[in-house]
Amino acid sequence: MTMSLSKALFFLPLLGCADAFVGPSAAPFRSAAVAAAPSGGASATGPTSLGPLPPLEGFDPRAGSTSAVDTNNKGGVWVPQMARPRRNRKSEAIRGMVRENIVLPRNFIYPLFIHEETYDTEIPSMPGQKRFSLAGMMAEVAESWQYGVKTFVLFPKVEDSLKTNDGREAYNKAGIVPRAIGMIKERFPEATVMTDVALDPYSDQGHDGIVLNGKIINDETIEQLCKQAVCQARAGADIVAPSDMMDGRVGALRRALDSEGFTDVSIMAYTAKYASAYYGPFRDALDSHPGFGDKKTYQQDPANGREALLEAALDAAEGADFLMVKPGMPYLDVILRLKQASNLPIAAYHVSGEYAMLKAAAEKGWLNEKDVVLETMTCFKRAGCDIILTYYAKQAAKWLIEDGLI
To answer: How many CB atoms lie within 10 A of CB 273?
Structure first.
């Protein structure tokens, strides 16, 4: 009997590999012997023998000149084929040997929310996350360090009394972010501290830039961002990350930093930051919802993919050291596009809404939290990410170590 490879591959799961199916779709293809569990409970490896497969009236897969399957020399069912990809999946040792993408704690950046209070506050829309006091922040950094997470990005909740349209508190050298940077670097000099460059936490308008006549003005905002970045660099920041999406801000920040002698301070550009509905819990954490309108005049349209390539080319030409996509999972296609188009490292931000959805499903018992989180992190790597910003950084690193995956 002869059979094409495509036909063999089509019938393989139906007739030779019922266990390849997961969920209800597998049921019609399992024999009664396989489906029936012993009254005392199934063994760890399932049944050890298989009886005759029940026939289908009027059809024998082995019969005829164009039979679907054949019979081997031992009288068993056989789908003739040379290539069987499942051979490379038959044991954990082999699966590990051929695994294409591995997530490590050093791939993570851990976002930390901080405030001026002397206590930590739970964030209801982000279970497990807190606004940390500076003491609480240090304790969280120390614990994360034990699991190999050594890069942190700081997001401040600023008192309303300090917020202005021009966001001047952003470059107050005695402000919470410069002090937090100094504390981390003093105790953990090998830590990498990244800072957010944008005005929204400091704005009484809740926008990423200065507002004038109902518009977010570009160039005047960039002037303020340059002051903010230099202030953060003076405090010891290793990476500044402009999330504002103003045109030309990467080049301006690079010139500002270089002119002050901070040529070693890196820029992680929020290259493809979309005007997404996934940011709600983050804005709760910082109390920085837009005071009016939305952010669609400066953040990207979620419908656009090619536009990200334009932003990537501009950011790279202006001196960015990393390119980021935000949000993460809904934009894996954009991550792949940037990876294919640029030689710069690619980051993704697994944002607050994505985190909150996984937490909610896990709390309901609908998902296995550990498994789905680690799968999610692997998906980022597979799509092309070198770096993953995630609120799961500490927990994911802990799981990877506990499970012996690293």
So the answer is: 27
